[in-house]
Design goal:
Elements (H helix, E strand, L loop, with lengths): L2 E5 L16 E10 L4 E9 L2 E6 L6 E5 L5 E2 L6 E2 L2 E6 L10 E4 L3 H12 L3 H15 L4 E6 L2 H4 L2 E6 L4 E12 L19 E9 L2
Parallel strand pairs: 1-12, 12-13
Antiparallel strand pairs: 2-8, 2-13, 3-5, 3-11, 4-8, 5-6, 6-7, 9-10, 10-12
Helix pairs in contact: 1-2
């Protein structure tokens, strides 16, 4: 039975040329881990505007996925580690629950929280090296996990259907002072069969 687990960490990234009221969904990357090498099609139904994809999104991505996560374009033979996309979102993210973390404590917090969410060490490392430089210099960061607010705006259709799906989307808001916020409940994620993992983030100004 398919298990769908959705977790998101609120992170704020303002891209050059983007208006503050339109958060950028930055560097969502999709990992595919089938039980055996097989061709996989991934379609993204995004309510916003795609600004960059790699490999190029052409009515979907079609790759041969391998158990170690290697993705091969059957047309060119080029190999990739993941599917990358980025866009300008029209979603309104919810910051009512999350964590307030001192900028200097960001790395330690992300290491622990990403593991709790279900990312493996390699996935978490990619996440941290991308986001840490944008967060650690802030006095505090409000970090919140998105669920339907993100997944409804960026729907994935994957064929064949995976057995386990983890979507970690982080959005943060830089703060000058610490505030009190309710912490969310995190459900453990278990990788079974053909597993798909995604992580990304958005900046809220």
């Amino acid at each position: 039975m398919k298990k769908l687990w959705m977790a998101s960490i609120f992170f704020v990234l303002l891209l050059v040329g983007c208006r503050a009221e339109e958060p950028a969904d930055a560097k969502p990357v999709i990992y595919l881990y089938p039980e055996f090498a097989q061709e996989v099609e991934v379609k993204l139904d995004y309510t916003g505007e795609l600004t960059c994809t790699y490999p190029k999104y052409q009515d979907g991505w079609r790759v041969v996925a391998h158990p170690d996560g290697t993705l091969v374009d059957p047309a060119t033979g080029e190999a990739y580690s993941y599917l990358f996309w980025e866009g300008i979102s029209h979603a309104e993210y919810d910051l009512s629950r999350g964590y307030v973390v001192a900028g200097e404590d960001t790395a330690e917090f992300l290491e622990a929280k990403l593991a709790e969410l279900g990312l493996n060490r390699d996935e978490a490392n990619e996440f941290i090296v991308y986001w840490l430089p944008k967060m650690q210099g802030n006095p505090y960061n409000l970090i919140s996990f998105q669920h339907e607010r993100y997944t409804d705006a960026a729907k994935l259709t994957i064929t064949p259907e995976p057995d386990s799906v983890l979507r970690v989307f982080m959005a943060y808001q830089a703060l000058d002072e610490k505030v009190e916020v309710e912490e969310p409940v995190i459900e453990p994620f278990e990788r079974n069969g053909f597993t798909v993992v995604e992580w990304g983030g958005a900046e809220i100004k």
